Amino acid sequence: MKNVLNYQTSNYDCGPTCVTNAIRFLFEREEIPPVILKEIWTMGVDTYADGGEPGKAGTSKAAMRYMAAWFECYAEKCGFPLKSTFLDSDFTAIRPGSLIWGGLENGGCAVVRVSHYGSGHYVLLTELLSEETVGLFDPYDGDPDEHRPGIRFVEGDPKRKNREVSVNVINGTDDSHYAMGPLEKREVLLFWRKDR
């Protein structure tokens, strides 16, 4: 049975929530080994806020890169049918022929760092709806973005998406809502099943 996708528990856990949602999106509940969930939450929320509070700056790019490596090792050693890869800078554009595009076309998903109210935030891309639009799940349960161009709030699809967003918005190099921003800040953790 497929799980519904989760919302984050605090203001800081969008990273591990999205990675957990990627696993929930790709696998049936009965297929998910508990060690994966343990490792996601051990690796995520690894940063320190300016005042020294642990976890209060969310999840680092280094942690996301490490998660990709951990998943690859786990899949190889334990036979779990998951493929993951970490992408940054020039490899993050969403367009026909790109790695992200191909992953989504083949039933995969992608944890993507975007701008969210001026801060870094992770969302889960789950499907290509057209060459202009992607479906995504934003784990931040808040403003339905109803007045933002290129962003549409979606209800009634809790196992796939809660937003439909223009590819142009996500590919944006500025800090507008849901834009990936400048190349040096971009990061994507791409997942797909190896057995499909």
Account of the protein in words:
This protein has 196 residues and is α+β, with helices and mostly antiparallel strands. It has one domain. Helices cover 27% and strands 22% of the residues. It is built from 5 helices and 7 strands; from the N terminus they run αααβαβββββαβ. A 7-stranded antiparallel beta sheet has the order 1-7-2-3-4-6-5, with helices on both faces. α1 (14-26) runs antiparallel to α2 (34-43) and α2 runs antiparallel to α3. The model has no long low-confidence stretch (mean pLDDT 94).
Strand-helix topology:
Blueprint: H1 14-26, H2 34-43, H3 61-78, E1 82-88, H4 99-105, E2 109-116, E3 119-128, E4 133-137, E5 151-153, E6 163-166, H5 167-170, E7 187-193
Antiparallel strand pairs: 1-7, 2-3, 2-7, 3-4, 4-6, 5-6
Number of helices: 5
Mean pLDDT: 94
Poorly predicted parts: none
Quaternary structure annotation: single chain
- Specify the helix fraction band: 25-40%
Radius of gyration: 16 Å
Largest sheet: 7 strands, antiparallel
**Count of the separate structural domains:** 1
What is the count of β-strands?
Answer: 7
Strand order of the largest sheet: 1-7-2-3-4-6-5
